[in-house]
Amino acid sequence: MSAEFDKLAKEEEPQDPLEGFIYKLAPKGSLTLFRLLRDEGRELTEDEIAEKLGASKNIVRKILYKLHDLNILVYRRMKEESTNWNTYYWKINWEGLSVSLIERKKEVLKKLKQRLAYESSNRVVYVCHKCGREYKFEEALANDFFCPICHIPLDYIDRTQQVILLEKYVRKLEEELADELRRIQSS
Fold first, then answer.
1. Cβ burial, residue 81 (10 Å; 0-12/13-18/19+)
2. What distance in Å separates the CA atoms of residue 31 and residue 12, rounded to the nearest whole number?
3. Among 104, 109, 110, which residue's Cα sits nearest to residue 72?
4. Taking every annotated instance into account, which residue ranges of this chain make up the domain HTH TFE/IIEalpha-type (predicted)?
């Protein structure tokens, strides 16, 4: 990798939720490559991308395939008659990207709902601050409110605020998903 591309990749900071999605799921340099394709607004070949980024074709190809696996990029293959080689033209898959983002949000929503169910059914717990283990009221009572492992007193924790916060996040994400699904269905 060239020093210039390496510097660009190190300076990657997501500027919006879409870039945050790419930054978290794709390898180093992906955001820089994505921005290049977005700013160019047209298909580019691997060679053009590598040249503009100052990176080796192998590194560019690795990032392109990862972004393709995430449904962020698509390519068009053209066979060169003179050389019998294939040339790949890459562009952003805007339609597939919104589907990928919706699927990711659904996964996050599912996990938030699971956490909310757990927290709701365990609002009052007792915790050992030495080993970190949590005990329901019945378990704490059976052990005279002492940790059976560390033999230190358990501390009372009320998770009502966490439950309220989780409920807020779940509602917000459900609303976002509903809006995005309506937008996709209407287009």
1. exposed
2. 7
3. 104
4. 10-98
Considering only CA atoms, which of 13, 10, 37 is closest in space to residue 23? 13
User: Would the pTM count as exceeding 0.85?
Assistant: no
Answer yes or no: are the C-beta atoms of 126 and 140 closer than 8 Å: yes
Structure tokens at 162: 């966490």
Question: pLDDT digit string (tens) for 82-135?
Answer: 888 899 999 999 888 888 888 888 999 999 999 999 888 887 899 999 999 999
Rounded to whole angstroms, what are the CA distances from 31 to 23, 43, 101?
Answer: 6, 17, 16
The answer to whether 93 touches 73, Cβ cutoff 8 Å, is yes
In CATH terms, 3-92 corresponds, of 3.40.50.150, 3.40.50.880, 2.60.40.1120, 1.10.10.10, to: 1.10.10.10
Evaluate whether 150 touches 128 at the Cβ level (below 8 Å): yes
Residues of the chain with CATH 1.10.10.10: 3-92
Residues with Cβ within 8 Å of 12's Cβ and at least 6 positions away in sequence, in order, are 23, 28, 29, 31, 32
For residues 123 and 105, give the distance between their C-alpha atoms in angstroms, rounded to a whole number.
26
pLDDT in tens, 2-20: 565 565 566 678 888 788 8
